Amino acid sequence: MKTFAFSALLLVAVEAQSTVSAWGQCGGESYSGSTQCVAGYTCIYENPWYSQCQPGSSPTSATSTVSTPTSSSSAPSGTGKLEWVGVNESGAEWGTAYPGTEGVDYFFPSTTTIGTLVNEGYNIFRVPFAMERMAVGSITASLNSAYLTPYSNVINFITSKGAYAIVDAHNYGRYNGQIITDTAGFQTFWNNLAKVYSSNSKVIFDINNEFNTMDESLVFELNQSGIDGIRAAGATSQYIFAEGNSWTGASTWNVTNDSLKTLSDSSNKLVYEMHQYLDSDSSGTGSDCVSNTVGVDRVEGATAWLRANGKKGMLGEFAGGNNNVCLAAVTGLLNHLQANSDVWLGASWWAAGPDWPAGTWASFEPPSGISYQYYDTLLKSYAP
Ligand SMILES: *[C@@H]1O[C@H](CO)[C@@H](O)[C@H](O)[C@H]1NC(C)=O
Ligand SMILES: CC(=O)N[C@H]1CO[C@H](CO)[C@@H](O)[C@@H]1O
Ligand SMILES: CC(=O)N[C@H]1CO[C@H](CO)[C@@H](O)[C@@H]1O
Ligand SMILES: CC(=O)N[C@H]1CO[C@H](CO)[C@@H](O)[C@@H]1O
User: Fold this and answer.
1) What is the mean pLDDT, run by run of 10 residues, along the chain of 384 residues?
2) For the whole model, what pTM was predicted?
3) How many CB atoms lie within 10 A of CB 81?
4) Residue 255 CB–ligand 3 contact under 6 Å
5) Which of 197, 232, 242, 317 is 20 to 30 A (C-alpha) from 287?
6) Which residues pair with 223 in a beta bridge?
7) Is the link from the previous residue into 128 a cis peptide, with omega within 30 of 0?
8) Structural domains of the chain in order of their starting residue, each with its CATH number
9) What are the boundaries of the region Disordered (predicted)?
10) Residue 210: active-site member
11) Is 355 in the pocket of ligand 3 (CB under 6 A)?
């Protein structure tokens, strides 16, 4: 209500100013431009930091915080809040020297900065690891405690704070660079690892990061064997995140991964994890976003797929650069997920981690990561 009064005042004060173009920013903390949209568009309040010119002649409610999705899929029935908002904590998967040396080839995330983010309201952290370090020499090897112990310290720290920790095998469906075809061995790997966390319901198992350029039936089988291995370990209370082929992209999910809808989970806590970047090739290598609306454009097909198949989704990786176009695209994306929170459970930014240089465009490491500085206020406003 306070915000409403403030916007109304602002509107009166700047009436004489020029108009803002379609999808442009028209309000928000420290914004000083015009709040009047071009004909046919209305300035919609999204959050205290951002209002946007969206199609329509007048808002249904000036205090509405959720924009109406333009998707042609059936109407959302979201609760208006995501269950999870957080970040990736990258570092332990770095490098290709196996098992390699901690502090040289790879790094564990900082529990200090994770604590900072938890205190800000973030409640999910995806912690990538390399299977080659967890099981050295072969995927069926017993787990390597020199790597598992410090990794578990991070996981246990996160869950002790009440947040969820995603145990992410960051392997692209490969081990030592070779596509994993031994589904039984893969099941053994997950059985071994799930035993470690079987009594911790705040752990989430992420079977594999970004399968790509491999046979879809193999992706299916690896996923299914991972699920089966985890449940057979007695880890029955946890969510499992399954990723898809084609780098688990949300924008291509509806045309590459339809077969994954038949994965089965005896605990019925399976969530489809998708990734989406907003640069020209969706790779996340560029900090530019192709348009103000690309966030929504690239996920609405996945939203429709999730709803049509009665599934839940998690946007496990996303990011945008530190510029106005990306700010609009990221805001639109988060609003879309929130408006469709009946099928989207959450989102996690790529990436925090102590060893990203602070100037790396997507760095979310407190206090000086460039994206942390630019996006923290916005992102945490979506936290549950
Ligand atoms: C698939 O999803 C994309 C991205 O959201 C969308 O543009 C496209 O129309 C969808 N295609 C089908 C067949 O649903
Ligand atoms: C349909 C299908 O491919 N099912 C497979 C799922 O994965 C398990 C475990 O690897 C296989 O036993 C199934 O044949
Ligand atoms: C490889 C694969 O599973 N492709 C399927 C992905 O989903 C589309 C749309 O349902 C199917 O047509 C493809 O066969
Ligand atoms: C966009 C981005 O940061 N992608 C990263 C995803 O994770 C892999 C493995 O850590 C990195 O190599 C990518 O740069």
Assistant:
1) 27 48 75 81 66 60 31 49 88 91 93 95 95 97 98 97 96 92 95 96 93 84 92 95 84 82 91 93 88 96 95 94 96 96 94 84 91 95 94
2) 0.71
3) 13
4) yes
5) 242
6) none
7) no
8) 2-55 (no CATH), 84-380 (3.20.20.80)
9) 60-80
10) yes
11) no
